[in-house]
Amino acid sequence: MPTAAGVEARLPIRSDMDLVWVRQHVRQAAAQLGFGLVDQTKVLTAASELARNTLVHGGGGEVEVSHVTADGVSGLRLTFSDSGPGIPDLDRALSDGYTSGDGLGMG
Q: Helix, strand, or coil here: 62?
């Protein structure tokens, strides 16, 4: 199990400009930890999508960026939170083939 080395930042997600700040901060944190370009791109893409979902579907919120270590390897933990309504039926939402919308996403 990873152990937290400390919370680096709590960033608000309330506007499109905040999405830019989240991406910049996550990119910088990943680079400082020595992530290669491919891994930086992967974590940045995930952070960007989660931040946008927090804003659009959760009505805004925040992300906590933490450095973690596990088995001597450093990493990032990104914890997104919002005040949205949540998922009414989590079991159904996690079942194969279920979709809650008409977009191109998986669910």
A: strand
**Structural domain range at position 85:** 3-93
Q: What letter would DSSP give residue 77?
A: E
Residue 23 is assigned to a structural domain of this protein:
yes
Overall domain count for the chain: 1
61-99 confidence digits (pLDDT tens): 999 999 999 998 889 999 999 988 888 888 888 888 887
Tokens of 36: 């290669």
pTM above 0.85, yes or no: no
| Residue 51: burial class (beta carbons within 10 Å; 0-12, 13-18, 19+) | buried
